[in-house]
Amino acid sequence: MFNPNRLAIARKRRQLTKKDLAERARITPLTLTRLERGDTSEPVEETVTALAQALDYPVEFFFLEDCEELSTEAVSFRSLSSLTARQRDAALAAGSVAFLLDEWVTARFNLPQPDLIDLRDEDPVTAAGVVRSHWGIGSKPIPDMIRLLEAKGVRVFSLSEKNKNVDAYSCWRDHVPYTFLNTFKSAERSRFDAAHELGHLVLHIHGASGNRDVEREADAFASAFLIPRGDLISHMPRVQSLPQLVSAKERWGVSVAALARTAFDAGLVSDWNYRELCKQMSVKGYRTKEPNARPRERSTLWQKIFEGLWKDRLTKDHVARALSIPPDEIEALVGGLLAERSTPPLAPGKQPPLRVV
């Protein structure tokens, strides 16, 4: 039976209005509206084929059970006011497709169990220290945020929207935490986003999307988590210049702007000097292009998963067919987290890493 829910998900993923899709499929907008609402009887084969071709989705996709839909109230969505409705809906629909992929993978691999704690009653800085202590990190710098989150059971996906307005978001589903990161941003800013979303996952019951106080709390958590104050003071007791910040930021893997703000909050730089630093960063273009950029972090978990699948000669295309979704959706959800050419055919006789992850 044709599923209206899946039609809506596919349309949103392609960032099309109902009018746009109706024109591409050469049907009336009223017909499409009725189809999405489930108000019409089973559509004729020609209509379904036209819709599938217009959306570049397999016909089979539209005849499976409902996809779980995310609402803005169910996730921690940053910069909600700066998003268009199409961008917001496409990013949320990415979550629906990610859940399908995660269910398929979870049924075949032993994935790390979630190891997050409920810190709703803690202030952000204290919460950051508690998480570090719980995970045995202490005050040392974190070399790789994505690897850390994956090891602690957070399901990490990419948002390949090629738009900086879509920052990142996170949510809980069946006691499993999910984070979606914009891989279009710099490595430093993506690391901060990852820590920001971790803050949401441990501090907040989602339902305050875009709330300024909640976002400030997540920012404070991210700063304290990535740059513990004690470690900051011991390695940079005074801020003397912008070049000093550019050199020092490598230790914590953050943007020069984030380090300057954290140093200011820690009392290591005066209000006047902080304003001057901000002006210098703007003049040098550091707001848009990070100096001494670090390599982008990659997923260890997804690398192992696809290497394990290749042991059975299964590729991303096989997974897409199993889920009746376009291959480009797999690429959008995990491609930005994998190194280039990360899953080529292996040489004859070469064994991939362990399948169990």
Explain what the structure shows:
The chain has 357 residues and is mainly alpha-helical. The chain has 3 domains: 63 residues, lambda repressor-like DNA-binding domains (434 Repressor (Amino-terminal Domain), Orthogonal Bundle), CATH 1.10.260.40; 151 residues, Arc Repressor Mutant, subunit A; 55 residues, no CATH class. The protein has 16 helices and 4 strands. The chain has a 4-stranded mixed β-sheet with strand order 1-3-4-2, with helices on both faces. The longest helix is centred in the first third of the chain and has 22 residues. It is elongated.
Keywords:
single chain, 357 residues, mainly alpha, 434 Repressor (Amino-terminal Domain), Arc Repressor Mutant, subunit A, four-stranded mixed beta sheet, disordered C terminus
List the helices and strands and how they pair.
Elements: H1 4-13, H2 18-25, H3 29-37, H4 45-55, E1 76-77, H5 85-106, H6 124-134, H7 145-151, E2 155-159, E3 168-173, E4 176-182, H8 187-203, H9 212-226, H10 229-235, H11 242-252, H12 256-265, H13 271-283, H14 300-311, H15 316-323, H16 327-334
